[in-house]
Amino acid sequence: MTNRRNFLRNASLLAAGGLLAGKAESISAAVPQTSGASCAAGCGSSKVIGLQIYSLAQELHANVPVGLKRIKEMGYTTLELAGYNKDGNINKTPMADFKRMCDDNGLLITSTHVNPPTREYTSSNKAETMDFWKKAADDHAKIGVKYLIQPGQPATRSTEEMARVGEFFNGAGEIAKAAGLKFGYHNHAGEFAWVQPGGKEAQSDRRRFGKDAKGLEVIYDLMLKNTDPSLVFFELDVYWAVMGQADPVDYMRRYNDRIRVLHIKDRAVLGQSGMMNFEMIFNTAYYAIGAFDYFVELEGIRNMTQFEGVKGCADYLLKMPFVR
Ligand code: MG
Questions:
Q1: Of 73, 167, 308, 311, which cross-links 40 as Cys (Cβ 3.0–4.6 Å)?
Q2: What is the 199 CA–ligand 1 centroid distance (Å)?
Q3: What whole-number distance in Å separates Cα of residue 287 and Cα of residue 22?
Q4: Ligand 1 centroid to 259 CA: how many Å?
Q5: Nearest to 77 by CA among 113, 114, 112, 39
Q6: In terms of pLDDT, which residue wins out, 31 or 60?
């Protein structure tokens, strides 16, 4: 059995042997220039720490330039957007302006969360949904975003419905690819429920289907199975996987070629709940996936501002030696 010391040594040897070298280069190439931006906690750190801006919600949008400066000072280097709308704004800020403000503060926008207009996928709304993705992909390509990620679960009640979900995701993936982006999917807990052929509803406990039920499969596994690896990747939210009673480490090992991005999330501020083994998660990600982007996501805080919570998450990642 490989103990942790051997595991880390083997990972180091892989890196030293160049097996991970190409991937490591792509990570360092993604580090934005910091000239002109002030730094505090993050200065001197080579860690590439991403933030999903949903974590700050209205606190950021109250004053975007000041908020971005604070994010940079905490040590974050990359952002994943939320709040895109069909007018081409991020919340109320035009995308080009948002991008310029990020540039001014040495923050690189690498990803975005966008939901299509409907969660019910049918043959009659496919064209409209693909038109939506075309505009979203083009808008984000203009500001240099790499990943176009759907964060919301579509209707997934049966095995048959999952086939259509795969078809829509592949379609979005083709459109994103044509625009120079990669299309991905982000999970919550519901994707780890089970469905069956001809089913009417997903069940988080497979026993509810009865002991003689046939063809039960996990929604997330069907998403992986029904999508083309060249068109669709997965952003694994490790906290929501745990909440769905799934093991994020096991998924990263089994699907290391499909899971390319992580959401690093805890019940509230990272490392404080005791329910997330981030050391194992990061070690597995470096070892099994190699190069990956990740974004901190914060929810569930009490008695503190979102900015304070987001700073607590950055402090944790900057301090922890298992985060490279
Ligand atoms: Mg998330």
A1: 73
A2: 27
A3: 14
A4: 14
A5: 39
A6: 60
